[in-house]
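Dear colleague,

Thank you for sharing your sequence with our group. We've completed the structure prediction you requested, and as agreed, I am returning the results in plain text so they can be pasted directly into your records. Please verify that the sequence below matches your submission; if there's any discrepancy, let me know and we will rerun it promptly.
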Amino acid sequence: MNQLDILVPFALPPAELARDLLRQSKAPSLAMLLGRGKATPLQSHDPFSRALPHEHWLARRFGLPPTPQDSSPGAAAALMQCLGHAPAAGHWFVLHPAHIHVARDHLVLTDIGQLQLEEEESRRLFAAALPLFEEIGHELVYGDARTWFIRADAWAGLRTSTPSAASGRNVDIWMPEGPGELAWRKLQNEVQMQWFAEALNEQREMRGQKAINSIWIWGGADAGASAQHSYAARFGLRGWMRAFGDGAQTDQAKAIANANGNQVNDILRGDGHRLLVLDALAEAALAEEWGLWLQHLEHLDREWLAPLLVALRADTLGAVNLVLTGSDRLVEVAVTRGALRRFWRKPSLALLAERCA
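Please find the predicted structure tokens below.
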């Protein structure tokens, strides 16, 4: 069947803000899909989980290996493979250069997507930190400007949090726990001290950018633990979600981020079960900039959902499965061409504001 799964992280705003936000939103295509489609029961997620609902959904959908209880998805090995590395042995974690700032009485992790870290800057920071890893016998591998990897066999079982789950929150709650916890904190502190004196950070601050003053660890997995899937094609995989793509499809991420109808046509070309990730709402939601979130929602509706709705009505697309998530909720909505004929069911965004029972 010609079916498209559409994952939209952060489409479910915080319950206390949802109704006011949705009264201001203009998303007629999304309202049509939600009003006419068949929704599963709203799923509640632990707000203190070490990964967000869309991250748990992807981990299950792509068969990532089991992780310690309440830990982040084991994405390290799959992401390494996507970035051109093939670790033969060992237990690996994802590392991100990060910015942690002081709030009133605690430390807060900034969304790593906002850091605008360039390749040359990341290489300089990597070179400065590398001796600290080598000194304690941990292999450090460069993936790209925002993504590095550390081998730490003795830390298997360390419970870690994804950066998106921890962003904007007190980092003490989300710091790693378990095997290697103290060794990690010592290494993290040493890297922070090493980078404190880096002229690069002074230059960034002079440009109005945030200093890169820490590192974040998550995603522990054994070497060779690859992702499994049944999708004929995957689109819009950015950041760590590239672990679920291949080289050709991952290269489309930049085009997806600035998509228009031409990219929609590309996605509709061919048969089979496909996945499209639309993550344009994430940065605004993590920063709690809800006016910007509304703008992105309307853009997503106009540039993506409107032409996909046309394709569904024309039977170019057999079925759509919307997967909408928030910080602690998830709902799936199945929509077929036949469902769109239910004229007695009014288009509505009310589902985005529903609370779990």
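Summary note from our side: Confidence is low (pLDDT under 50) at residues 247-261.

Kind regards,
the structure core
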